[in-house]
Amino acid sequence: MQIVIKNVQITQDLIGKPNVFPKYTTQIMNLANQNAQGTRPRIVGQMSELIVECPKGSYQDWVNWYTDKMPAAVEDATKKGYEMIQCLQSAITQIDKELVRKWVEDLVLTKTFAGFCFQESILKMIAKQRHEKYQRATPEEESNGIDGYIGKTPVSIKPITYKTKSMLHEKIDVKLVFYEKLKDGIKVEYNF
Questions:
Q1: Number of domains the chain contains
Q2: Reduced to 3 states, what is the DSSP secondary structure of residue 134?
Q3: Contacts of 178 (CB under 8 A, 6+ apart)
């Protein structure tokens, strides 16, 4: 038998009534926090260590202990997050339909074409370095996360930022090649 326990139920079981946020606000606050880095360990502490270090077990014990140990952390994180929210509010006033169109064209047309060209250059360079042939993946192979082959080795080519965006990670069972755009080219990293 399987059961699913919703996050809201877990929160309610542990701390009582959970916070309720207006629609879309948590997405905006998450984006602001990512940019502001307000909840990084240097601001709020290493949470995985702190929660274990807390000597008592209830939610209120945790709140009291954490507040004593890190008295400025929540306020500092709030300040950083709110400052970024104000920046986002300013940016949102500059977005109109034409700007959205430019962004879509840049994403769908420009970045797709540039990414395809990067992949070709990357495959060619690695193959040359390894004294092997390369080939691009078929559309079916691409749908399985394969961008091409170096010899018989299937590879997936990702921007270096992919490493830090764990929420985007799909399951890829092939060798990964990372690239970083530089002013005068691209830097490639691989390990196979």
A1: 2
A2: strand
A3: 157, 158, 159, 160, 162, 163, 188, 189, 190
Last residue of a domain, one of 92, 118, 136: 92
108-118 residue pLDDT tens:
999 888 877 88
Residues 59 and 73 in one domain: yes
One domain, residues 88 and 156: no
- Quote the CA–CA distance of 30 and 116 in Å, as a whole number: 31
Q: What is the pLDDT of residue 176?
A: 92
Tell me the Cα Rg of the chain. Answer: 23
Parts of the chain with a pLDDT under 50: 167
**DSSP 8-state secondary structure symbol assigned to residue 17:** S
Q: Is this prediction's pTM over 0.85?
A: no
